[in-house]
Amino acid sequence: MSIGSVTRRSALVLALAGLTLGSACSSVYRNHGYVPTDEDLAMVEVGKTVREDLPQLIGRPSSAGLLEGSAWYYVGSRWEYYGARPPVEIDRQVVAVSFGETGVVENVERFGLEKGQVVVLSRRVTDTSIKGVGLVRQLLGSIGRVTAGQLVD
Question: What is the Cα–Cα distance from 114 to 143, expressed in whole angstroms?
Fold first, then answer.
């Protein structure tokens, strides 16, 4: 075996080791939950669409309001995994679809977080009364308090 082949082999091993270590230290992002896209939400007509149509239009909700027929909530979050560090939740959104007494959609609202505060990202409403904001704050307020073990089914 010549010195040139050993040097090339060593260089190749070092290059592969560097690529392996470099990729192990890059961030990996994972999404958890489900939030309908704006295009999907555009199919929901406030004042016309009924609760029974939503599963076909935008899917089933992550959770529903405590009061019968009050609202459906779609919750999604984005997590960053970096090496051996614990995962960090970097974004969370909640879409709240609230219904009138007859099951007709009254409000479609998208909430997010801005500097730890709940903010409205978009809103389509038939009236000015916003329902279920307390639950939305709870859903968004637990950001960072969820451990990786709680995410595993």
Answer: 12
DSSP character string of the chain: --HHHHHHHHHHHHHHHHHHHHHHTSEEEEEEE----HHHHTTS-TTT-BGGGHHHHT---SEE-SSTTSEEEEEEEEEEEETTSPPEEEEEEEEEEEE-TTSBEEEEEEEEEETTEEEEEEEEESSS----HHHHHHHHHTTT---HHHH--
User: How far apart, in whole angstroms, are the C-alpha atoms of residue 80 and residue 98?
Assistant: 31
**pTM for this entry:** 0.62
What phi and psi, each to the nearest 5 degrees, are found at residue 73?
-125, 130
Would strands 117-125 and 71-82 be described as parallel, antiparallel, or unpaired? Answer: unpaired
Within 13 Å, how many C-alpha atoms sit on residue 150's CB side?
A: 10
109-120 pLDDT per residue, tens = 888 877 556 566
pLDDT tens sequence across 19-73? 555 555 788 999 999 999 999 999 999 999 999 999 999 998 877 766 555 788 8
Torsion sign (Cα): 38, 42, 43, 45: positive
